[in-house]
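Need residues for this backbone.
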């Protein structure tokens, strides 16, 4: 773990976003990978105590994706940060972007029922405005 990562994870907004991301991945994994072996994630953010008592319980595949996403969040240059799905300078590698898109499509609407009412509504509103902008520019696709 780098000093930069540790310093970024000391920022309350970064911690909150990382926890939200972990919750979303947990919701996705519980519903789609229930048959797999799942365990509390072991990651740099988890070892820094970012998730507190709500460490996401995930399968090995989702754990890999979440570890990747933790780093992207830590080093995100956007402030304020949009949902990654609505970012105009997406920094994920293509396969991670595809995975995150389908994970968010599943978990975004359902997060409302898992203590993320505000995040779920924000995701929906932000998505609507993103699609409007994308429609106006004529070329972007939602991700
Ligand atoms: S996709 Fe955009 S918002 Fe998400 S971490 Fe990368 S730069 Fe930040
Ligand atoms: Zn999973």
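Answer:
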């Amino acid at each position: 773990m780098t000093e930069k990562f540790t310093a970024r994870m000391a920022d309350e907004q970064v911690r909150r976003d990382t926890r939200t991301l972990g919750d979303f991945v947990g919701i996705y994994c519980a519903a789609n990978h229930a048959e797999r072996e799942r365990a509390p994630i072991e990651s740099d953010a988890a070892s820094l105590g970012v998730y507190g008592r709500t460490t996401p319980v995930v399968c090995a595949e989702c754990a890999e994706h979440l570890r990747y996403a933790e780093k992207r969040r830590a080093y995100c240059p956007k402030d304020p940060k949009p949902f990654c799905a609505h970012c105009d300078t997406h920094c994920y590698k293509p396969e991670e972007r595809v995975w995150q898109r389908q994970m968010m499509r599943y978990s975004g609407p359902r997060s409302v029922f898992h203590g993320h009412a505000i995040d779920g509504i924000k995701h929906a509103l932000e998505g609507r405005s993103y699609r409007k902008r994308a429609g106006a520019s004529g070329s972007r696709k939602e991700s």
